[in-house]
Amino acid sequence: RGGHPYGADSLKASNGGVIPNLNPPQFVLITRPLAALTPRSALAVWMAASLLSAVAALVLIARATSATPLAIGAMLLLVTCSAATGAFVVAMQVTWLLWGPLAWSWVAMRRGRWTSAAVIVGVLVSLKPFLLPLLFVFVAWRRWGALAAAMSSAALAYAVGIAAFGWDAFSGWLHGLGTITWAGQIFNASIYALWTRGFEGIATAVWPLAPVVVAPRAIVPLWALSSVVLLALSAWSLRHEAPPRREGAPDAATRAIDRAWLVLTAAALLVSPVGWIYYLFFLTGPVLAWWTTGDDRLTWPRVAMMAALALLMVSPDVLAGAQPHGWASVTLGSGYMWSLLLIWIAALPQR
């Protein structure tokens, strides 16, 4: 309607409430042509673009990995049946639109095209800032040119958005990020959500989760401490297993990149208050590569990965089935968070 993209008049929900716009101005600029369509037509275009991007991501993943047809079929089955897909379909989130470019940047990095990968990563970080930990790989492995390319592309993306909508829009977006009150919902796989469920709970009409004890002031300190520890261990894992700079060991370099991408993406979702499970599609390629290039024996990391993937198949009705009970909220009710944490643990270097 030509109004402020982050103003209250533009954000009124059908029930009369206000839902903050959590997408930055440059993303609003990209999707602005949809406003010229009817809601039904705009949704059709959105769905078609999302599906094309998802198919492109799956094709890139299948071609980049050494997975057998059986493994690729298993991947497709898991993706189709996971709770992440259910959450995506219900909300029609932006995940699949970003999945294709993110998969392309992962493949480009595996092929040694660091600058090209970094440019795409930078743009994606500007759209979804929780992906910022992906830049750790450039710092840890001293790819300074790639780091500069990523930061420059992110800065340029923000500059375009600000130029299109003004500084007020940018500050409105930042304000919206600080107004999230629904992080404790069952589809949130972050450690922030874990502490929110434990010390505040979430009183939604569907899948309510009771707190262990009401102590909301403990949430942010515990989340901050957990995040520092998790990010520090993730950064340490990169220094522990840097890819070779010389020719002669491309397989070792590729495995290191797959592991780094998996560790950092999982860490990014774990520490972000908006680590919703529909972002877990971003892990598909690295998980498949990790599984098919690792030790074929039934080691404990592989068992942990199988347990994590199994948890992602569980319905939210099952996870919320023991309510109201506080300890059930931080155990069974946080099943998706434990799944993501298991993926992160399994991907860490085993020494």
Topology summary:
Blueprint lengths: L24 H7 L7 H26 L4 H13 L1 H9 L3 H16 L3 H14 L8 H5 L3 H22 L1 H11 L13 H9 L19 H22 L9 H22 L12 H10 L6 H12 L4 H4 L6 H5 L4 H13 L4
Helix pairs in contact: 1-8, 2-5, 2-13, 5-6, 6-8, 8-9, 10-11, 11-12, 12-13, 12-17, 14-17
Short description:
The chain has 17 helices and no strands.
Which characteristics define this entry?
mainly alpha, 17 helices
Description:
The structure is a single chain. The chain is mostly helical and 351 residues long. The protein has helices at 25-31, 39-64, 69-81, 83-91, 95-110, 114-127, 136-140, 144-165, 167-177, 191-199, 219-240, 250-271, 284-293, 300-311, 316-319, 326-330, 335-347.
C-alpha termini separation:
58 Å
What is the global morphology?
globular
Question: What's the gyration radius in Å?
Answer: 20 Å
Unreliable residue stretches: none
Helix-strand string: HHHHHHHHHHHHHHHHH
Instruction: Tell me the total number of β-strands.
Output: 0
Largest sheet: none
Mean pLDDT: 89
Percent in strands: under 5%
Which class of secondary structure composition applies to the elements? mainly alpha
Helix content: 55-70%
How many helices? The count is: 17
